[in-house]
## 1
Amino acid sequence: MRFARICLLLLLGVSLCGTLASQTKKKKLLAIGDVKGYQHDSVSQALATIERIGRESGVFDTYIRTDAQLITKQKIAAGNAKNLDFFDAVLFYTTGELEMDDQQKKDLLSFVHDDGKGFIGVHSAIDTFYQWPEYGEMIGGYFKEHPWGVFDAPVIVEDPNFPGWQGMPRQFTLKDEIYQVRTYSRDKIHVIARLDASKLDLSNPRVMPEHRADKDFPVAWAKMYGKGHVYYNTFGHREETWDRPDIQKMYLEAIKWAMGLVDAEITPRPLPK
């Protein structure tokens, strides 16, 4: 009888350990630094920083690639190669028309839309795949100039409750290159932060005419794409930006949200008056 109790306790212990292990299993992030256009010097530091914060937090392991080979659900012949089925989210710090065939593009959209996985776009991720409209629909918009170059950008936080933005001042300045965004709609994205248009030079000839009217310059947003979580943030052009603890926290929490580890209210809403 005593032996049976010991065996039962051992079995329960093994079961509990297995349950705890499954609950603490680290997520997998595929971070792509493929560049087919403007060469951002900060890509290396950005991806190294993403890898470090994932490792130090114990939340996720990062697989860094400078090509798009692993963006597929098909079996890859190369030894030990992973495909999208292995990952929980994909991060792009990319530029231009990446070398992905039609099946790879279909697989990436399915990974997010149908499988409910995450996608994180960093800075020039919206300066990517102009010839693939479905990508623009997924990420939420496309790059259209950076009228003010690198400057002390005046930022207004619209959603201080979004993961990674708690504790940020409601208004602050950040020295970085901020993108102007086209082909986006507030009906489809949840803007987390935008530029303070009252502090911008709107006479700059590179400001889109339609934005002289609505004065809406989002810098970070979140959205659903089917079942999947999509996050974009324009911060990260400068290497120095990645040294900031607040930016590191911002991206860590965004990745956790994209992976479904934390919740957030992301109902689209109009530009606040």
## 2
Amino acid sequence: MMEVNIKAKLGKDTIKADSEKHIKNKPEICRSCPEKYCLYVCPARVYTLDKEGAVVMELDGCLECGTCKIACTKNALEWNYPRAGFGVQYKYG
């Protein structure tokens, strides 16, 4: 079986950051969420916790897969695709 290096494949992609966020969370809901599935399911590790335990989003590396929206059982995310010309540009190689 051929081994695939995911980091090398993702390294070929480019991401054009937008000043307008395409994912917005509701901090009051995230704070009360005991599971915080977003921390574990995001392949780009967009979600982290700060020192106080609040969920922090760093969208610059978002792959726009939508996994976080599906995994969020509290409906705390408002998820849209980035505006035209922004976001991830996949380059297969």
